[in-house]
Every structure is written in structure tokens, then in C-alpha cells.
């Protein structure tokens, strides 16, 4: 489908397609060599998810459903922001490498990481603080009771921590692929799958966290994956401007902390004022908290003079102009 929708525009420039697999073509062979480990490497998160679901089958009834719903909610900011940004930044990284502009490569990579953290850190805080209201709004109906809301929100709270690592990995893996290295992410990915299985078994057998333990093991694994990938890529390209990334993340964390406090009190006020039973009240709860909290986050980020904020604004302007 992704290929088909591009055919009309491509035909306007006078190009014609002829389906042919030429194994003698050097470019095609290189693409296949890079593609296979690349696909597997990008599937690590999904592999871990399948593992989590299988282990959850050993827990109480409803655990699998709780994990599935919580994971889907966590994927929303990942898919909307992190994966979109990774797709946008990948061609730029490729261009810098092809021109041997490694300083520009590092600048672009750093901006990518800082921007994705600028977006996902507040998303993580929002999911953590609003875990119950969000799950209640999206899923509470019919047989999905308030007890189910609590279990699913518990899993979402632990899953939310992994949003940072999982989002950063989207950028870091593109950093590897742009230097024609798809094997390193694969090797690290296989290692983290083993770590995830081990942590799952430890939390399920040795703690009372239940679905929270499975979600927590997933989050810990994503951070390990992020750390190992970042460290390996930094060694390969002789540094990745880490200091400015750390400073930016610290500013995002401060802004998100202020936002989190406001969101907590706004949500509490809305629930006390309108209750939590009707969908209208639930929508007011979540919607008000997101709008007011988002305003606070951007205001604090502006006061901290975060360049990532302007980058996000400029990117959105370009999107709307199209």
C-alpha cells in the first residue's frame, strides 16, 4: 500500500515501473543484506510484547487484556511523534554520511534525540499521572469495569516509563542504518529480548506487581536497549554531542515536572466537580488536564529557552503548509 500510493505522483515525472528482481545488481544485494537484520532489529519491541503476553497468561484472568490495552495506549505518542520524527530525520542522516559530513550528522542526530525527548518526556508524565482517567475514558464500558480500569492503569503507569527508551531507539537505530550498520542493533536486540524474559520471570515469580511487573520489565529492557545502542553508536562515530542532549533532557524533565503537578490537580478538580461516570465528564477530565498541562509545559520550556520547542513549531508549520 505504501508503494502503491506513490505511483501516481511518481508517474508525473515521466518514470515507468517494470517489476524485476535482479540478483546481480549490487545495490539490490546490498539492500537485502541490510534489510533483513534491520527488520528483525526494529521488531525487538514487538517480540518483547509477544513474550510479555505469553507470560501474562500465567497470571489472573484479564491480565492479558490489561497489558494489551495499556500497551496500545503507550504506543500512541510513540507512533504519532517518535516514529514520524525518525522517518523524517533518516534521509538527512543518510545525506550527511554520503557527503562525509559527520559533524552535521552529529548535529542532526542530536537534534533528533533532543526533540523526541522534548515530546516524549511530557507524554510519559501525562500517561503516568492520567493513567486511570485515560483508561477510563477509552475503555470503560459494558463488561470493562472500574476494577479493570485500575488493573490496566497500573500496567500503563509502568509501561509509560519505557516510552522514553522506546522513542529514543527509533532515532538511534536510524543512526546505525545511515552508516550501513544493521547488525549491531540486531545483536543488541537479541540480548535485550533475553533480558526481558529474565526480568519477566523474576517479577512474576518474586513480586506482587503482577501485570505491573511485566510492564516494568518491558520498560527496563527498553532503557537497556537504548543505553547499549547509544553507547555503541557513539563509539562508532566518535561522539554524539551527549552533553547538550543531557542538558536538554534535564530542561524537559523540569518542564514536565511542573506540568505533572498541574495535571494532577486539574484532573482531581474535574473529577470532584463532574464525577467520573459519564463519558462527557471523563472527556472533560482528560481534555482539560491535557490542554492546561500542555500549556504549562510549553510555557516553562519557553522560559528555559529550549531550542527544541522552536524546532517542533517550525516542523508543524511546514506540515500545515503542505
TrEMBL record:
Highest rank taxon of the organism: Bacteria
Molecular function as annotated in GO: lipid-linked peptidoglycan transporter activity
One GO process term, biological-process aspect: lipid translocation
InterPro entries assigned to the protein according to its UniProt record, in alphabetical order: Lipid_II_flippase_MurJ/MviN (IPR051050), MurJ (IPR004268)
One annotated Gene Ontology cellular component of this protein: plasma membrane
Membrane topology: Multi-pass membrane protein
Keywords: Cell membrane, Cell shape, Membrane, Peptidoglycan synthesis, Transmembrane, Transmembrane helix
Compartmental location: Cell membrane
TM segment ranges: 31-49, 69-90, 111-139, 151-172, 209-233, 245-266, 286-304
PANTHER family for the chain: LIPID II FLIPPASE MURJ (PTHR47019:SF1)
Record protein name field: Lipid II flippase MurJ
Species of origin: Fervidicella metallireducens AeB
Record lineage: Bacteria, Bacillati, Bacillota, Clostridia, Eubacteriales
Amino acid at each position: 500500500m505504501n508503494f502503491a500510493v506513490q505511483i501516481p505522483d511518481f508517474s508525473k515525472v515521466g518514470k515507468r515501473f517494470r517489476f524485476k528482481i535482479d540478483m546481480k545488481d549490487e545495490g539490490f544485494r546490498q539492500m537485502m543484506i541490510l534489510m533483513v537484520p534491520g527488520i528483525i532489529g526494529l521488531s525487538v519491541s514487538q517480540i518483547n510484547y509477544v513474550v510479555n503476553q505469553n507470560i501474562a497468561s500465567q497470571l489472573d484472568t484479564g491480565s492479558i487484556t490489561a497489558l494489551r490495552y495499556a500497551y496500545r495506549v503507550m504506543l500512541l505518542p510513540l507512533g504519532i511523534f517518535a516514529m514520524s520524527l525518525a522517518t523524517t530525520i533518516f534521509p538527512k542522516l543518510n545525506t550527511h554520511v554520503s557527503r562525509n559530513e559527520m559533524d552535521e550528522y552529529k548535529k542532526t542526530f542530536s537534534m533528533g534525540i533532543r526533540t523526541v525527548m522534548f515530546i516524549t518526556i511530557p507524554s510519559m508524565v501525562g500517561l503516568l499521572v492520567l493513567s486511570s482517567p485515560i483508561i477510563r475514558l477509552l475503555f470503560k464500558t459494558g463488561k470493562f469495569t472500574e476494577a479493570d480500569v485500575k488493573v490496566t492503569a497500573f500496567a500503563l503507569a509502568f509501561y509509560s516509563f519505557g516510552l522514553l527508551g522506546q522513542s529514543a531507539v527509533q532515532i538511534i537505530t536510524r543512526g546505525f542504518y545511515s552508516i550501513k550498520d544493521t547488525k549491531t542493533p540486531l545483536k543488541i536486540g537479541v540480548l535485550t529480548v533475553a533480558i526481558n524474559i529474565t526480568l519477566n520471570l523474576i517479577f512474576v515469580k518474586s513480586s506482587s506487581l503482577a501485570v505491573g511487573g511485566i510492564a516494568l520489565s518491558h520498560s527496563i529492557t527498553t532503557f537497556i536497549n537504548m543505553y547499549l545502542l547509544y553507547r555503541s553508536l557513539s563509539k562508532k562515530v566518535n561522539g554524539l554531542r551527549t552533553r547538550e542532549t543531557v542538558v536538554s533532557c534535564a530542561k524537559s524533565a523540569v518542564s514536565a515536572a511542573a506540568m505533572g503537578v498541574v495535571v494532577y490537580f486539574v484532573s482531581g478538580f474535574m473529577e470532584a466537580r463532574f464525577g467520573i461516570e459519564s463519558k462527557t465528564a471523563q472527556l472533560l477530565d482528560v481534555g482539560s488536564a491535557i490542554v492546561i498541562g500542555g500549556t504549562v509545559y510549553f510555557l516553562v520550556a519557553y522560559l528555559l529557552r529550549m531550542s527544541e520547542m522552536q524546532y517542533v513549531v517550525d516542523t508543524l508549520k511546514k506540515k500545515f503548509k503542505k
